[in-house]
Here is the input.
Amino acid sequence: MHELSLASDIIDTVKQTLSHEELPSLRKIVLEIGAYSGVVPDSLSFSFEAITAGTELAGAELEIINIPFRLKCNQCKTEAEPEYPIMLCENCGSSDTVVISGDELKFKEFKISESEE
Ligand SMILES: [Zn+2]
Here is the structure.
């Protein structure tokens, strides 16, 4: 259900960003989603399609760029991409780590049909 409310948030943002004339020409919404964000991309695409079916956004699709989960160790400064939710440093085993990517959930760009290459 999280993805369903996220999909409707995306549509709200699209409607605020694009003019009424541009909406039917929208072809792609490019999103960056981190592995750590808790969002299931397939589920989000499915929810988006279900909500937009029969609307002016029916021709638009989501393009999801997956951002890997990356940790940095505060002790030895090693950066690694462990399997989430492992929060330990691969090098020294410390739990004193910070997430440096993977919690993203943001719009990257909108593609309107006229501007397509
Ligand atoms: Zn370390």
About this structure: Residues 73, 75-76, 78, 89, 91-92, 94 surround zinc ion (CB under 6 Å). The CA atoms of residues 41 and 64 lie 7 Å apart. The chain is about 25% helix and 30% strand.
